[in-house]
Amino acid sequence: MSVLVTGGAGYIGSHMVLGLLDRGEEVVVLDNLSTGFDFCIASQAHFVQGDIGDTALVARLLKEHKVTAIAHFAASLLVAESVREPLTYYANNTARTRDLIEVALRADVPHFLFSSTAAVYGMAGDKPVQENAPLNPLSPYGRSKLMSEHMLADVSEAHGLAYAALRYFNVAGADPQGRSGESTFNSTHLVKIAMETVLGKRPGMQIFGTDYPTPDGTAIRDYIHVTDLIAAHMAALDYLRAGKGNLTANVGYGRGFSVRQVLDVVEQATGLPLNVAEGPRRAGDPASIVADSGYLRQATGWEPQYDDLPAIAEHAFAWEQYLSRRNR
Ligand code: UFG
Fold it and tell me: 77 CB under 6 A from ligand 1?
């Protein structure tokens, strides 16, 4: 019995691999290394370099490794890029997920974990958003993920596949033991950019918008430690295995920090000054989005351990320093 992790060389997927191995599960990683890195994959996992669109390869892996659950992370994830290249997003995120689900059904894989996003909500207002809020994604990225959620629901109804779709808020930080972290080139994520800036890998950075209707004028997000996000996946997997049905749930902490607050914490946690300029708003950014993750807690018993922005910054910094030692 094993779990197939697609995109297991990427930021979140590599932490999923660690989380599964830490609790003694067998893991097969399928990743085409288009944006991931083999040095992020734990050596105890069985790694296959390949594409999830290669259905013959996926079918073979499911059979050979007796896969009983798929954790599907392989995706394109840049909102702005999705606006410029929508078909890439509908291909990589929607069409490939469709093919993966079909192969999973043929191989009688009973459980499917899907990496969804807060981007399915679009403008959410200033209250923590619940799962039953209107789904109006603002970008092809958000729509490509929402379509996959709809497919999973339809397939579950028709064929009985049990799935969990977890809607991630702003994932940040790195493995507390320093085994993986966000390694992506040209990341657009605030904490990652701030870490690269304090370490001089970027000459400076900008705050995108200082005129939002928020207390300090900068945008508010719900930053969640990647290790807590993975704990949510373990809780979701246990939920599926216990036969409790399907699960669509937000994963965040239910509180937000502004861009300025995040950058202040980065300076404090690293002890290094940040070269920051104020810039215009980034197109498509909501002023504020914070998760209500009460449903996930109540349904699965998930309890986060790292709801602490300084810890998120410290772990991200340690990983960024490791990347520097690798000349990255
Ligand atoms: N920001 C800056 N400067 C930067 C980078 C980001 O001010 O150099 C700001 C953004 O404008 C935003 C906040 O920091 O207000 C967070 O930005 P990120 O790019 O880190 O994250 P987003 O909230 O834009 O996006 C995240 C995920 C997406 C997901 C989205 C859902 O990365 O995949 O949440 O809301 F779709």
Answer: yes
Q: Does ligand 1 lie within 6 Å of residue 194's CB atom? A: no
Condensed to tens digits (0 to 9), the pLDDT of residues 17-61 reads 999 999 999 999 999 999 999 999 999 999 999 999 999 999 999
Centroid of ligand 1 to alpha carbon of 325 (angstroms): 27
206 lines ligand 1 (CB under 6 A): yes
Residue 273 sits in a domain of what CATH number?
3.90.25.10
259 and 242 belong to one structural domain: no
- 260 within domain boundaries: yes
Q: How close is the Cα of 121 to the center of ligand 1, in Å?
A: 14
- Average pLDDT value for residue range 192-196: 98
Contacts of 39-45 with CB under 8 Å at 24 or more apart are: 39/183, 39/326, 40/9, 40/10, 40/11, 40/14, 40/180, 40/181, 40/183, 41/8, 41/9, 41/14, 41/17, 42/14, 42/17, 42/18, 42/179, 42/180, 45/5, 45/8, 45/17, 45/21
**89, 121, 141, 239: which is the annotated catalytic residue?**
141
Whether the complex's predicted ipTM surpasses the cut of 0.90: yes
Total structural domains in the chain?
2
Band (124; pLDDT cuts 50, 70, 90): confident
Locate the ligand 1 atom nearest the alpha carbon of residue 286 and give its number.
15
Range of the domain at 56: 2-172+224-251
CA separation for the pair 104, 278 (Å, rounded): 48
The verdict on whether 322 is a catalytic residue reads no
Same domain as 201, residue 74: no
Residue range 262-266: average pLDDT?
Answer: 98
Say if residue 104 is in the same domain as residue 211: no
User: Is 39 within the bounds of a domain?
Assistant: yes
Distance 230 CA to ligand 1 centre (A): 20
pLDDT value for 123: 82
Residue of minimum CA distance from atom 33 in ligand 1? 77
Cβ-based neighbours of 243, under 8 Å, separated by 6 or more: 162
